[in-house]
Design a protein that fits this description.
The complex is a heterotrimer. Chain B is of the alpha/beta class. Chain B is built from five helices and five strands, in the order βαβαβαβααβ. A five-stranded parallel β-sheet of chain B has the order 3-2-1-4-5, with helices on both faces. Chain C has five helices and two strands, in the order βααβααα.
């Protein structure tokens, strides 16, 4: 508790408070704006980690993460186009509420629900992360290697319905991670000294998130303007509170554990929360026409999952979302390795970060309730400026890594890879996670085998590793069975249709 | 076939132009054509009318032709429609702008005033 | 990030083959082969090194080739990519690759000129050029915003972060 209070004091210094405010405002703005999300923003803001102290930078990044979750809900409700994938479900009821003149209540239950869920989930994070960390610290390299392997497979296979495309993205990421010098030997550098240090993760992240997205959008720009529903200051009456508080709590219960799971993310828990609320509601007739429960639950779930994501990130060094992946890289760029030792080695940093999550959450509520109408105005930014700005800051971010035009050229090449990935429906997350975790994977394997003197059986010598491999095998078998069944079902369906056609 | 063409946007300037245009059209007994165009470069354009606004507009001035287009240049679109319909008159709503504002923002009404090949009526919202 | 779904065209229409996807498969195969060939050129490490530097490249390269074959087979069977949608993306219109080419051209100009002209100038041109490529037609305003952005970021890096971005021909002026 003392550690936490110290952290809170540090988070509340004027300087850090300023970074939190900037982060929260920036996060909400990018959550509202089309085409730009928290992961891209963190990638673009990477240069600040060169000089800003690590605690301030992380406070700001955490503010952006939480703010992005909130901003996405604003566009979901007012425009029926979710700003982030985590707010897709919010749009179902939220936009219906807004169309029926209840935009203020929808925004209010989203904001207050996000606050409640964020606060509870952050408290859970404070309780659980150290416990997970002290459990993980006991693990040896073999278990660690197994967990990394599971995380990579989960991220590639679980998210998105095409496993093949997930693995294509993952292995492309691992291939990018290979570039550079390993144990004194140059791999995939093609003799160029510019590639000897490898490809900076910042350049990859900026290229895939920012350049890829901007070029992809440029090729498919939506022309006809959307209609935004005008809104005043969000508020709720007694009845709305009565209908909201239970969905908030249930949403939190869905969001936190899913956020903490590899490949959990925010999409699944928001969807589960919506289904649950629709089943439990006393007003089933309102669902589909603007039920407040359908906004309160999913919005609580997505913020709780953001807090849940921090558990594996801090305690194991495992990112489960794109935003967490960039945060991990930011922490590493300070020479700090997130993972089990973090709580022992950097207690001040960890507790400041945890305390700042509470601060960010409170700021979101205080700032965003009155600011909602202003956020809606942000949508009037002309797109040429929005995307030109993204390309500008992307170039600056990549250039500032080492002031080499070569990095800019690399940025363009990888940017085209980003476009191709979007064209062919390849998910982005496995690639980024592959680039970031590729080196750790090799390190843990080397460590494990070095300790055993090259005996491969050491890899499944630890109980945790055994369990993880069992889970991995089960998952792969389940996937194979599902694939075979799916094919059979499809064949069945098509033969039925053929009969109908011939009849 | 001739017409009165109104450059419309859902604000006080567009409403003033619409009111004046409707009056001119009925006085001359020729059709009224309402043009509401957008460059479509912003995610949301407050100058682009939604379906409800168009419905209310029809309630007020009767069954009129409303053209809603996404075009590179809103002023040029108004001029194009006026020429296509062989319009007798184009009506635009004008607002006061500082010289700097004009230089930076460009102006639909200025474009129409300079380029239109028929008389142009510039109206201001009644203060 | 949007999720992707595989759609197999049913019997109701002629089987669509996404030919461009063969290109992706070929690209994956090439990358995989390059990774493996590069790994064969690596000298073996120290004797007590349990994981040779060429181990992971072999795994990754092989996996990429296998995935390339899988993708090619799936494509031939009618597997169609589902392009990523988005809030600002309209997939009902045909792709506008001309705009992308213009943007890439502006970007390439920045790569070539940044050393000689410096970020303060090329950054402004980059912004204005991209805005123009994306359909803005207020050139004066675009250049003004671009210049403001590049100067602010230059001084921001210099004063705020203590990082002097190479000034190019403006060395001594800024």
């Amino acid at each position: 508790m003392d550690l936490f209070l110290d952290g809170l004091m540090n988070a509340l210094t004027p300087e850090n408070l300023l970074y939190a405010v900037i982060g929260v405002l920036l996060g909400t703005a990018v959550g509202v704006l089309p085409g730009i999300g928290p992961a891209m923003t963190l990638a673009l803001l990477f240069p600040i980690t060169y000089t800003v102290p690590v605690d301030s930078a992380l406070i700001m990044f955490a503010g952006i993460y939480y703010g992005g979750m909130y901003g996405g809900s604003t566009t979901s409700i007012l425009l029926n186009t979710p700003g982030e994938s985590s707010s897709v479900v919010t749009a179902i009821e939220g936009n219906q509420m807004a169309k029926r003149g209840r935009a203020a209540q929808a925004l209010a239950t989203a904001a207050i629900g996000s606050f409640v869920a964020g606060t509870i989930a952050t408290a859970l994070l404070v309780l659980f992360a150290p416990k997970v960390s002290s459990a993980v610290v006991q693990l040896g390299a073999p278990s660690y290697f197994a967990i990394l392997l599971l995380a990579l497979v989960a991220v590639s296979a679980v998210l998105g319905s095409s496993k093949m495309r997930g693995f294509i993205a993952l292995f492309l990421g691992l291939a990018i991670a290979l570039v550079g010098t390993s144990t004194g030997q140059a791999r995939l550098t093609f003799g160029s000294p510019l590639l000897a240090d490898g490809i900076d993760v910042v350049v990859v992240a900026v290229a895939i998130f920012a350049i890829g997205e901007a070029l992809w959008v440029a090729a498919h720009l939506r022309r006809r303007p959307l209609q935004v529903i005008p809104v005043g200051r969000p508020w709720m009456d007694r009845k709305d509170w009565g209908r909201s508080w239970k969905p908030w709590l249930r949403g939190t219960a869905f969001g936190f554990p899913f956020g903490a799971l590899p490949a959990g993310g925010a999409e699944v828990p928001t969807f589960l929360s919506y289904i649950t609320e629709r089943r439990l509601t006393k007003h089933p007739e309102e669902f589909g026409k603007g039920a407040i429960e359908g906004v309160a639950g999913p919005e609580a779930a997505n913020n709780a999952s953001a807090a849940g994501t921090m558990v594996p990130l801090l305690a194991i060094g495992l990112p489960t979302t794109a935003t967490a992946a960039i945060m991990l890289n930011a922490i590493q760029s300070y020479g700090i390795q997130p993972g089990p030792q973090l709580f022992d080695n950097e207690p001040a940093l960890v507790w400041t970060l945890l305390a700042s999550l509470f601060v960010a959450n409170t700021l979101l509520l205080v700032l965003n309730l009155p600011l909602a109408p202003i956020w809606a105005k942000l949508l009037r930014v002309p797109r040429p400026y929005l995307y030109a700005g993204i390309l500008f800051f992307a170039s600056l971010g990549a250039y500032s890594v080492s002031f080499e035009p070569f990095d800019l050229a690399l940025l363009l090449v990888l940017g085209f890879l980003g476009v191709a990935m979007r064209r062919f429906g390849l998910p982005v997350l496995p690639l980024i996670v592959g680039v970031i975790l590729g080196p750790s994977l090799e390190n843990q394997l080397t460590q494990a085998l070095a300790l055993s003197g090259g005996d491969v059986s050491t890899l499944w010598s630890e109980p945790v590793a055994k369990v993880v491999y069992a889970v991995l095998v089960l998952a792969l078998v389940a996937m194979a069975v599902a694939a075979v069944r799916g094919r059979a079902a499809r064949r069945g369906a098509s033969s039925v249709e053929k009969e109908e056609v011939s009849a | 076939m001739t017409a009165v063409v109104v450059a419309y946007s859902p604000d006080e300037y567009g409403e003033a132009a619409l009111a004046a245009g409707a009056e001119e059209a009925s006085r001359r007994s020729i059709p009224l054509v309402v043009v509401n165009a957008t460059r479509g470069d912003a995610y949301v354009d407050p100058h682009f009318a939604d379906a409800d606004t168009v419905a209310r507009l029809r309630e007020r001035v009767g069954e009129v032709e409303v053209l809603q287009e996404v075009v590179p240049d809103v002023g040029a679109e108004v001029v194009r429609v006026a020429q296509e319909r062989d319009a007798e008159l184009v009506v635009v709503g004008v607002r006061h702008r500082s010289p700097v504002g004009k230089a930076l923002m460009g102006s639909v009404s200025q474009r129409v005033l300079l380029d239109a090949t028929c008389p142009v009526l510039a109206v201001k919202p009644s203060a | 990030m949007s999720t992707t779904t595989e759609t197999t065209t049913g019997p109701e229409g002629p089987r669509v083959v996404d030919r461009a996807q063969y290109g992706l498969a070929a690209f994956l195969a090439v990358v995989g082969v390059v990774v493996v060939v590069d790994a064969t050129g690596l000298r073996p490490g120290f004797a007590d090194q349990p994981v040779q530097p060429s181990f992971l490249p072999y795994v990754v390269g092989t996996a990429l080739v296998v995935l390339a074959v899988t993708l090619a087979v799936a494509t031939a069977r009618g597997n169609v990519a589902e392009p990523e949608g988005g809030e600002d993306v309209d997939l009902t219109e045909p792709s506008d690759w001309f705009t992308v080419a213009k943007l890439a051209g502006v970007f390439l100009a920045n790569v070539l000129l940044v050393d000689t002209l410096g970020w303060a100038i090329t950054g402004a041109l980059l912004f204005a050029g991209c805005a123009w490529a994306l359909g803005s037609r207020t050139l004066l305003k675009d250049v003004a915003i671009g210049a403001a952005l590049s100067l602010i970021t230059w001084y921001g890096f210099y004063v705020g972060l203590g990082l002097p971005i190479p000034a190019g021909i403006l060395d001594g002026v800024l």
